[in-house]
Amino acid sequence: MSATTDSPISLTTTFTPPAACFTNTWLIEYVSGTDYYDKIVTGTDTSWWMSLGPRETGSCYPTGYQASSTDFYYSPGICPSGYWVAKDHTVTSDGEAETQATCCPDNYTANPDTTRLAWYTHNVCTSYNAYSDQLWTFTKAGTTSSTVRADGINAQGISIRWKSGDFAPKTTTAGIITSSPSSESITGAETQDATHGTSGILSKGAKAGIGVAAAVGVIMMITIAILCWMVQRKKKNLKFEEADNIDAVQVAPSSNERMGGPAELNAVYRNTVRCAELDPQGRQIPVELDTRTRTEKF
Fold it and tell me: Which residues cross the membrane (predicted)?
C-alpha cells in the first residue's frame, strides 16, 4: 500500500525489532548503483559503506514497510522500540497541522542532506565515528572483520506522521477509554500515550502532581488543626484571667485599711452602741464649807 494514497498505513502499537537488527553490521560495496553484500568487488569506481542490521532486514521493520520507496510513511504512526524521533517538522495538510518525522535507531541521527551520498537515499540515519581509532566490526561475504577506516554506520529510517488528535483518548460511559486511531478499547485508568502510542496507567507527571496535591492537603489540615488548638487554648486562658480579676475585686481592702486608718464599724454594731450618761440622782451637788469650821493658819 502506498503512503501517498488517501488511506496510509497506521502504526499505533509499538513494534519491537529482533536484537540482530541493532547488533549486526554489514560492509556493503557500492558499484554503479548496485549494493554488494556477499561479493567482493575490485575496481576504481568501487565505494563501500557500513549498514546496520542483518542481510535480510524484512523482520526489522513493521508490517507494510516499503524500504524501496522514499515517499512511504505511517500515519498516524509511532516509532518502533529502540528508535527515537531524530528529525521532525510541522506541515499543514487539509487545513490541519500535521507533524512529519523520521525515526532513527537510538544514538543515530538523521542526515540533513540525503543526496550527498548514494546510500543516504534509503539509509537516512547515521552513527558517526567519534574517534579516529574507533574499531568497527562487520560482516562481508560471510566473513567477520574489523576496520578503523569507517566514518560511521548507516541505517534505514522510518517515516511517520501524526496530528494532534490522533492519539487523544476518547472517554465513554462505564469507565471505558477507547484509543483513537487504533480503536482498541482499554478499561479502568488506562490511557493512550501520546508519544509512544502504548496504553498504560497514569503518567509519572500525573502521579507526581497527585502526590504533591495530597502532601499539600495534609499540611493544610495539620496547620488548621494547630490554629484551632491555639484559639481554644487562648480562650481558656482568657476565662481564667477574668475569674482571677473578679476574685481580686471581691477581697480588695478598703482605702482606710490600705492607708492604715481605723476600719469603720459594722452598721449593725454601730447602732447598738450608746454613750453612758451619769445618773441624775447620783449626781453630787457641791456645798460650801461652814465658815465656822474653817481653820486659819498663821
Answer: 208-231
What nine digits make up the cell of 227? 490554629
Give the pairing of strands 109-110 and 152-155: unpaired
Whether the model clears a pTM of 0.85, i.e. scores above it, the answer is: no
CA-based max dimension of the chain:
196
Q: How many CA atoms lie within 13 A of 64 on its CB side?
A: 16
54 preceded by a cis bond (ω within 30 of 0): no
What element of type H or E holds 222? helix 204-250
Per the structure block, which three cell numbers stand in for 65? Answer: 514497510
Of 175, 150, 159, give the one whose Cα is nearest residue 121.
159
Q: Are strands 47-52 and 83-93 parallel, antiparallel or unpaired?
A: unpaired
pLDDT in tens, 142-187: 677 777 767 788 898 999 999 988 875 544 433 333 333 433 333 3
